[in-house]
Amino acid sequence: MPYRAPLKDFRFLFDKIVGLDKVAATDRYAEATPDVVDQILTEAGRMCEEVLAPLNWPGDRNPARLENGVVRTSPGFDEGYKAISEGGWVGMASDPEYGGMGLPMTVATAVNEMMSAACLSLQLCPMLSQGQIEALEHHASDELKALYLPKLTSGEWSGTMNLTEPQAGSDVGALRTKAEPNGDGTYKISGQKIYITWGDADFLPNVVHLVLARLPDAAPGTKGISLFLVPKFLPTEDGQPGERNGLRVVSLEEKMGIHGSPTAVMEYDNAKGWLVGTEHKGMAAMFTMMNNARLGVGVQGIGVGERAYQHALAYALDRTQGKAGGSGTIVEHADVRRMLTHMKADLFAARSISLMNAVAIDMATATGEASWKARAALLTPITKAFGTDVGNAVAHEGVQVHGGMGFVEETGAAQFSRDARITPIYEGTNGIQAMDLVARKMMDGGEAAFALIDELEKTAEAARSTHEDLAQKVWDAIQALRETTEWLVDQDMQSRFAGAVPYLRGFARVLGGVTHLKAAVEGESGRKALATFYIDRLLPEHEAHFAHARGGDEGLYLLTLDDLAAA
Amino acid sequence: MPYRAPLKDFRFLFDKIVGLDKVAATDRYAEATPDVVDQILTEAGRMCEEVLAPLNWPGDRNPARLENGVVRTSPGFDEGYKAISEGGWVGMASDPEYGGMGLPMTVATAVNEMMSAACLSLQLCPMLSQGQIEALEHHASDELKALYLPKLTSGEWSGTMNLTEPQAGSDVGALRTKAEPNGDGTYKISGQKIYITWGDADFLPNVVHLVLARLPDAAPGTKGISLFLVPKFLPTEDGQPGERNGLRVVSLEEKMGIHGSPTAVMEYDNAKGWLVGTEHKGMAAMFTMMNNARLGVGVQGIGVGERAYQHALAYALDRTQGKAGGSGTIVEHADVRRMLTHMKADLFAARSISLMNAVAIDMATATGEASWKARAALLTPITKAFGTDVGNAVAHEGVQVHGGMGFVEETGAAQFSRDARITPIYEGTNGIQAMDLVARKMMDGGEAAFALIDELEKTAEAARSTHEDLAQKVWDAIQALRETTEWLVDQDMQSRFAGAVPYLRGFARVLGGVTHLKAAVEGESGRKALATFYIDRLLPEHEAHFAHARGGDEGLYLLTLDDLAAA
């Protein structure tokens, strides 16, 4: 099944909904003129459609495998990776000083979505490098930067994140990997890490691992964690891969999806590493990497969802069954139409949120203003959780549109659902995202949230003159968001946590209502029809989410463990 | 992971919620005393826990395969099937005249749920035989009954359903398989059928196919379809498998889940068949089979969901992560608690609806009353769609509770999600169920629905004296159901279809609210805590469903095909 890059949607969102012009008006991103952005999107879109998209299905059928210690990758992935790195897409948002394109994150986010849609398993490789590049840009010494950033930015080498250990998943603070000073400014790293995405690959001359570990004098918990750079091959003086370091891939996981992405168990045995940032401050450095990775994972969900949608639509436009009107295919049946419209409406909502998030990141980078930083921080868990929830729901519905054919692997619909399944889990489960939203992101007493709500109100208000009915419904939803947020910031943590996930879902529903409303105002008739569907039929869900969110923790714990186990 | 048969829940539902005593008070089911039922559940539960449950995971890892025309089944499935048939569980609800136990469908439904939970792939084999037995009991000639029913009821032979052809899925009327009279009362059947569950198996001495086909003079569409019985081996005079018939398994599908269940493409080439029922009335006979199969598939969803829940709970009770209170495991974290409680609350709602449905079937069988028949007919699509939606949602959340471990196949959580995925599709997609609910099941102008709603109101009213707050919320929800139903029966078909799925979902949410309310009144504190969670936090979803349902078709088709395809 071909993939069509949703360029029109990105252009519309950039121009009319999220305001890329604000970003292009800053000195930092002055080069991101509409023409340039258009050219970049077109070129990335072409690569995704022509080079990456055909690799997706073979990757599922021929998983990466470990053969005598070598990670053999899926057919064509070497060529696909070459296209990504040679196109400059690994370093598209990175510092031009080290070879990056220096593009706004907003544009990079659109490209990342398209690459995820085309081939999620392969896209994970450059996505992790991007995160590593950003962590090094912010925290590494000049020497490390000079040595590693050019290689990572060009995609010649790739980067990984090593956080998880068997006993330390969501609770990173429980990790045990050790780092001991060698006395020469380097460290000996020993321990086992699991779930290391693209831990190695036969087409990569070197892989650079960022590893969280504990120094001998480290405090327990997250305050005693430091970050180390540990390359597979130690670079020679002229920056070529030299001596083999003390690390290896022990095994690869057999997973429900993303079979083309090697998920490694890594063993570090007195591997040589370099400290990144300050001792015991590894979590802060890691958070730099994770925040953008979270945006990245959110758009992975959207990308896979978009592809699942296109796949389902193509099937519905082709399949005849029963007495359908119009085209004579099942797309004319009301229930099939409902499914497809629901999918498209949710994808638009999620995509608009992800780009709103990226604009905030760019504005924060370009202006350094605290309010933009807070906006970006607030939106990141919403993008991650809503984007991946939507990706899963859409992929699930895509299978449903196919009927029995959807359950047969041959049609490819099932793969999207299996691939999407990881996205609400990794880079912090969606539960963790929601807890981040209601705790860390509300430490300001809700200031960032209320500032956003004020803006949402203005958008709804402005739409009244032309779209009174829709604007009123969205206005009411915004009021519900405001009231629930006011309630939330008065609660203790346990009560917030009990309703964190439904609160995040309701928040996203309302945000999507506002961007759809704006699309109805700014767009053609199709945009308005989609917005009306969303606002009339999906937006009302926010009420149930907020009712759920306000349930609090008391009622939750009334059910004892014995009650839960009763059968 | 072991499985624990939820016997307490069944007993509570039988005694306090769905009223099995009504069924046991009829002549037909007078033997189904509480003691007997208890003994049966205990015995079935033991088989499911000890014999069937251990086969589930090996079945996933070692799919059924076709080897030189022979369907080789997964390890241990032969022994598992032997336990099911020798225990009498194939024919548990069948006519004692042919060796059945004659149990109420209510009890059989509980047993079917447990068998599905233990090993869905294997349970499909007896489930299809049960459907075939019922179709033959109602429509076959005495000769066919005498020859086949004892073998099918004992489980010595198994039965299949052959409806689907590549061009005829949801639109059964498009099928092309031909039947020509041989002149001796038998027919020659030729054609290809797909998605034939348990089309053959190496442990079965004979397989009996019920095949929908067209006679030479048949009208087009569903009015020209007849039903034929076509055995793999033609029975000899003493009822043993004799000459091989003209049919074969061409291939098996590679599926997302239920790997242990062989899904066959069947080729019929002048195979000898016998007419079941009347010429051109095959659909009516097939509906007998399908209606109960739909109840059966609904409880498959619930069964797999129950197992996924138990699996996730066990993990949450064992896994330590972060600063959890109480037991020190992640079950103490509010968001994990929320997920598990949500799962359990939905499973109870779905199970109670399925058993309410089964009671209606039993009462219809025992009394012949039209109102019970209408009740059973009304509830069947709700049980099927809601039960399977819940099964999928719960299995999805079960993966989420496991975090990264859920995505790794080794832990088994992913299998439940992959297995459950077929249940909203087969036996009529959930979209078809919803259309059946709003069209065929409302042809009475909503009479059956309003009769049920009247009863729901009585239950809510009765609960007021002890549970005023919960009762009021449920009462309000019932009013919303009534108003939406009143609106619905005034709509034309296109408008009903546009909102059919959300209407069904809202209906189920309200039904679940009523059974939870009853459980709060009748049960211990744990039941009340669970009911409060459901009524406060999940029941409010009905409003969004009904708003969606009332959207109508006009707005849906405002979005053109070009709009849908725009990217």
Describe this protein's structure.
2 copies of one chain form a homodimer. Chain A is built from 21 helices and 11 strands. In chain A, the strands form 3 sheets. In chain A, strands 3, 4, 5, 6, 7, 10 and 11 form a 7-stranded mixed beta sheet that branches. Chain A has a two-stranded antiparallel ribbon with strand order 1-2. Helix content of chain A is 57%, strand content 12%. The model of chain A has no long low-confidence stretch (mean pLDDT 97). The first copy, chain A, is globular, with a radius of gyration of 23 Å. The two termini of chain A are 45 Å apart. In chain A, strand 1 (65-67) and strand 2 form a beta hairpin. At the A-B interface, helix 1, helix 8, helix 9, helix 10 and helix 11 of A face helix 1, helix 8, helix 9, helix 10 and helix 11 of B. Chains A, B: Residues 452-556 form the Acetyl-CoA dehydrogenase-like C-terminal domain.
Task: Please name the defining characteristics of this protein.
homodimer, 567 residues, Butyryl-CoA Dehydrogenase, subunit A, domain 2, 57% helix, oxidoreductase activity, acting on the CH-CH group of donors (chains A, B), 12% strand, Diverse_Acyl-CoA_DH (chains A, B), alpha+beta, globular, Four Helix Bundle (Hemerythrin (Met), subunit A), flavoprotein (chains A, B), Acyl-CoA_dh-like_C_dom (chains A, B)
Overview in brief:
The structure is a homodimer of 567-residue chains. Chain A has 567 residues and is an alpha+beta fold.
